[in-house]
């Protein structure tokens, strides 16, 4: 007869052995345990909206997942399984659907969409606003305000301003607009945070003059550390981050040439980078 103490010790050792054996199993032993979905599918269709230009419906083909993310070229955002998108600018877009399933597992699928023509109402009037090529960059003119101490630099896909010791510099381009129409100006902007800094956007019929400051018709949108924005790291649309200016929508009484001016300066400007600069009709 086995003593009780020895019998219990054998049972405990056996259970511990089973636990250790399970703990040493490779991760793939959990496959098909219900925590992840082996049939996760991110495929989708793109359908033009009938009777309207530049609008498309994105529709996921398999709904066996928790939620969708879509990326139409401006970063992924959480959306619905069916999304209607508006692409006002002509070009080739890489559309990506990300299906997120159980356990955080995700799969993605992409399609190329060619938009043949810009929307006549909301197409971007800024040329070279993505700074992607030498031709894009050539559309912009440097506005020298201070003799030195501030500088815009261009990279593939962005433009960056740095400045110090209360110097400033701008960039600008001329644009033809229609009278009696509202236009909205905006851009993507990011920075590491600056001290004693202004970043200002102007839309005016007054032409800039080299080696002269620019403030025609007042700031439309901007960052200003004294007003409470731009002093800490930031990233997003300038219209949403702005804490200075009279608003990003502007109109003119008659057809005319306007100047889009972006200037920045200050005591210690941590690099501020812009992309996707746009001026679009809103009516």
UniProtKB/TrEMBL annotation:
It comes from the Bacteria. Residues 1-24 form the signal peptide. Keywords: Signal. This is PKD domain-containing protein.
